[in-house]
Amino acid sequence: MNSIRLQFSNREHGDLVLSPGVRGVGRDESGRLVLVDDPARSLVQFSVDRRGLWMQVRDDVRGVHINGRPVRHMAMLRLGDAIHVDGHRLTLCGPQPPAAPAGDEAEAPRSGASMVLRGVGGPHHGRALPLDKPRLVGGLRSCDLHIDEPAFAERHARLEPHPEGAVLRDLGSEQGSWVNGWPVRHALLLPGAQLIFGSQHRFVLEAPTTPPLAALSEPFGEPDLNPVDRRAATAPPRRPARRVPWLLLAALLLSGALSLLLLYGVR
């Protein structure tokens, strides 16, 4: 996690390195975006912990976007996200992806279950492509992953299964691809990597054992629970014992009294 950094789009300034914990980004005396320690000076705050990456926007700050979507309060981040703050475009970069292994033969996953490439932005948002075999990415409609952009290569790249994730192999495209904020052509993709094709097609590589999104979206700043509190918090609520409503009981007593009155009154 110590290799996570915010990179300016034109590299006009040095990278802002996000160490574990909470770091604020604000303006210095010249108006340039820098890391700040005072929360009152922070336009946005980034939290790096075992649960992942989070961004919190100050209440009076507007115009903050992640991948083109406005953020008013808080958002979970992925490596490779484009963040617009105060007129600047920053890319959240992680460690550079490992080099692709030599050879063109696809390897089967060790667990027998295949990785999944899931769309998280662009026209393929919400769709899933299992990487149970080599998949072709390109502008041709016959490709396993069709990218509908005029300048996109007909045969852009190939995604191959690998025991540790998936292998991206470029097929001679002009644009290349982006992985976790870095331009690449050949790379080993690990689970959680964000892969970008073209201008707006974003995907995340998910392992078969990747926790569901709900498990990764805990509120920002929520204190950890000890094992006892965690069991109490996750235990199913006890169902209250069934009780006879007081009105029903009173009605039964009243009806019984009236029956006795009528019975003795007739005699």
Automatic annotation (TrEMBL):
It holds the Pfam family Yop-YscD_cpl. CDD domains: FHA (cd00060). The chain crosses the membrane at residues 246-266. Keywords: Membrane, Transmembrane, Transmembrane helix. Residues 217-236 are annotated as: Disordered. InterPro entries: FHA_dom, SMAD_FHA_dom_sf, YscD_cytoplasmic_dom. Residues 135-184 form the FHA domain. It comes from the Bacteria. This is FHA domain-containing protein.
